[in-house]
Amino acid sequence: MQSIDVKVQKALDCPCVADLKTGPCGNGFIDAFSCFLRSTEVEKGSDCVQPFIALQNCIKENPAAFSKEILEEEEKDEEAEKSNLKVRAPAWSRESKPKL
């Protein structure tokens, strides 16, 4: 059985993610993707929120570096937030937060 580090490296070596690794958000992509692959949480990746937020912010700051399809997905997410649809957040994100 392969170690998780070998599996992560194989996944990162895939030509399908080459552009993401070498673009302006390459380090953020590698951090978030690696974290997700290494995650052992019941809700896989729930311990990787911060790296994915950083990646999302980088993508928003560098729109010219990403395909139209990726940016359209982002717009659809924003449209969904404005609609009357209700999406239930994962349990880990519903922890009580201190009121400011």
Automatic annotation (TrEMBL):
Keyword tags: Disulfide bond, Mitochondrion, Oxidoreductase, Peroxisome, Protein transport, Redox-active center, Translocation, Transport
Annotated localization: Mitochondrion intermembrane space; Peroxisome matrix
InterPro entries: CHCHD4
Gene Ontology BP terms: protein import into mitochondrial intermembrane space
Record-level Gene Ontology MF annotations: protein-disulfide reductase activity
Taxonomic lineage: Eukaryota, Viridiplantae, Streptophyta, Embryophyta, Tracheophyta
Protein name as it appears in the record: Mitochondrial intermembrane space import and assembly protein 40 homolog
Gene3D superfamilies: 1.10.287.2900
GO cellular component terms, semicolon-separated: mitochondrial intermembrane space; peroxisomal matrix
Top-level taxonomic group: Eukaryota
Region (Disordered): 73-100
